[in-house]
Write a structure and sequence with these properties.
Elements: H1 4-35, H2 65-73, H3 77-80, H4 95-103, E1 108-111, H5 117-124, E2 132-136, H6 141-148, E3 157-160, H7 168-171, E4 179-182, H8 191-202, H9 208-214, E5 230-238, E6 242-243, E7 249-250, H10 253-267, E8 271-278, E9 297-306
Parallel strand pairs: 1-2, 1-4, 2-3, 4-5
Antiparallel strand pairs: 5-9, 6-7, 8-9
């Protein structure tokens, strides 16, 4: 029969084993979370033997080490083509009202922010950078400071996180946004993943009552401005909706509207979607450089407002 001392030692050993097992389980969960990513596989390849790498982007940006830094982080088409020097958000029909709303105190989150080029354009056009937030699955943000040399005056807040698998830093933004900008992101996923991403995006918005208590419905000049739950952006679309060779889903305006109808049904919300296809040249993108996307590829522009 074990003595009291032996029983105490056995109890301590059991507790230690339990704590060790719990620690291993927690570490395993953390590793599992780190493995979850919505990134496309090609983004990690780093090879320049791809149709979206241009040896020279002279005339778009000075040649230098910044683009190489970006490419070594991820081999995105926007890096290879120099498209990050062409902010797309100003081409949105909602852009003027977005600036007015931000000046009144609204908040905006840029999903897939890259180096923050769209946000910097907002600031140039009068939006306060203190109302701007940014998220991306990997940090290109610091290279943006190198390129624009504005670390001391550009105060938008950056979060490294994956909207599909939000970490605690991204979850901390839930219920705090009035506007979400999402450019060149949704088209990299299949349809079901797009639905899942939008469900996470819905969580980011303020409640309608909360937003309207902060942002008045008019701008003082008789013009209405969006007060809550506005989603704007651009992505690669198609003349007819289809699944691509990479098993991603490209929308046309009809299918994209249906996507938001489905989101509404599954989240007990309702959204008003205005989507249209535009020629690449209409938004400052070189059509010849985008030829690898296929003859049916177009730029899909969207403005989506929550109405319930």
């Amino acid at each position: 029969m074990a003595t009291a001392t032996e029983q105490h030692q056995q109890s301590q050993q059991g507790d230690q084993h339990g704590h060790q097992q719990q620690k291993e389980n927690e570490e395993g969960k953390e590793e599992e979370e780190e493995l979850k990513t919505s990134e496309p596989v090609y983004a990690r390849a780093k090879s320049k033997d791809v149709p979206w790498w241009l040896e020279s982007i002279e005339g778009k940006v000075r040649e230098g080490s910044e683009r190489e830094l970006l490419w070594n982080i991820r081999s995105y088409p926007c890096t290879g083509l120099g498209a990050f020097l062409n902010p797309l958000l100003p081409h949105s029909p909602a852009y003027p009202s977005i600036i007015k709303t931000l000046q009144q105190g609204a908040t905006l989150l840029d999903i897939g922010c890259f180096i923050g080029h769209d946000l910097r354009r907002l600031v140039i056009d009068g939006a306060p950078s203190s109302n701007l937030y940014a998220v991306d699955v990997v940090n290109h943000w610091d290279v943006g400071y190198l390129m624009f040399r504005d670390r001391q005056k550009f105060s938008a807040r950056f979060v490294e996180g994956d909207v599909m698998f939000p970490n605690q830093a991204l979850k901390a933004l839930e219920g705090r946004m009035n506007i979400v900008s999402i450019v060149s992101v949704l088209h990299q996923w299949g349809l079901e993943d797009q639905v899942q991403a939008l469900k996470e995006i819905v969580k980011l918005f303020r409640s309608k009552d909360d937003a309207e208590s902060i942002i008045p419905q008019g701008n003082g000049h008789g013009q209405a401005v969006p007060s809550s739950s506005l989603v704007v952006g651009f992505q690669i679309g198609s003349l007819s909706a289809r699944i691509t060779e990479r098993n991603t889903y490209r929308h046309d305006p009809v299918s994209f509207t249906k996507l938001w109808e489905r989101l509404g049904q599954e989240t007990d919300t309702r959204w008003e979607c205005d989507a249209k296809l535009r020629e690449f040249e209409d938004v400052g993108v070189d059509g010849a450089e985008s030829a690898f996307l296929g003859e049916d590829a177009r730029m899909l522009q969207f403005v989506v407002r929550r109405v319930k």
